[in-house]
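thought: fold this chain, then report.
action: predict
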Amino acid sequence: MVGIMKRILIIFLVLTIIGIAIGVMKPFDSVLVEDDIFIAHGFEDKPNTTEFNPYPQGNPALSDDQNRAIEIAVSNETVLGYLSEGYWLAPGTMLLKEDFEGYGENFKGVLLAKNETVIYVIVNVKENKVKMIQNYTTFEFKAKTMVVEQNGEYSEIKATGFTDNDVKTVREILSNDQKTAQIIKNKNYNITIQDMVYLSNKNIQNATYAMVLLDIEDGSKYVVMVDITERKVFKMGRPVN
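observation:
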């Protein structure tokens, strides 16, 4: 179970980096340390997203093919042009679901982002070449279902967005969970939902999770992973006062 939780956290953190880079998520410095997550101070004072890396030892573990795909992408003349214009290279690789189904595992997707534009680079690792480069707006790309590769496994992920009812549901879950209920009891607090994400892989079928920033009136902050499908707190990081 710990391994599954850690994979979900890594996936969320990858999406958080991309979300912050393309401007659809509020920045906060979330860090994965072993099996814990917590908030570090000061990131709001550093708006340069290239300084944001939630991995204490660099990017998440990538396969040889993933690393090769990134090398091929950043060697491409067009991609080099985007990088020179200030586009930011997102960590890891991911393919849109339709491309994963159409091209297969020998193809990887590399993302660059700037302002409200996402550059999606499809790389044929077997033939050592860039197959296609496509431009999307932030919201066009966010509406897509992505296939994320991590440790040789593939997960379907889609940022679903959230409604006022979803915010209400998150508040109810936090109030009913024994640990979070004790923290927020008789206190004013705010929640910031980074996004709600649909996730499906061989271990987890058709589940929806939310990454929530819980900000207590005493100054404490927590990152809370909420399982919307099972209506429970999935994971909560250590507090930072």
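thought: worth noting. The first strand starts at residue 29 and ends at 33.
final: tokens above.
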